[in-house]
Design brief:
Layout (H helix, E strand, L loop, with lengths): L7 H14 L2 H10 L4 E2 H8 L3 H13 L3 E6 L2 E6 L2 H14 L3
Length: about 100
């Protein structure tokens, strides 16, 4: 197998992405969002969290630039900001979740 070489800037970028994935609840949220936009309520249900921690995790993911929120009526729909995240999450699923 051929080795993988990253430059310093790309290594930092990828490291920051993996930090976003490093908490199980954030990873669950990102997985849910890989299916398409979701409301806070949908993310709470999918992740088994209360409203406060859900909002805290979403705030962090927004600060990190992983998700964006768009108002739709009286709720905010969150979605992933980068389609490469969807591909990365699919790869993680294929490697670790498929049986």
């Amino acid at each position: 197998m051929k080795g993988v070489v990253l430059n310093k800037r790309k290594a930092k970028e990828v490291s920051e992405i993996f930090k976003s994935f490093s908490h199980p609840s954030r990873l669950l949220m990102l997985c849910k969002l890989s299916e398409g936009p979701s409301s806070v309520q949908e993310l709470q249900t999918a992740c088994g969290l209360e409203q406060a921690p859900t909002s805290q995790f979403l705030a962090r993911l927004r600060r990190e630039g992983r998700v964006t929120g768009e108002r739709s009526g009286n709720q905010v729909l969150y979605s992933l900001t980068d389609p490469r995240l969807v591909e990365l999450l699919r790869t993680l699923y294929r490697l670790y979740c498929e049986t």
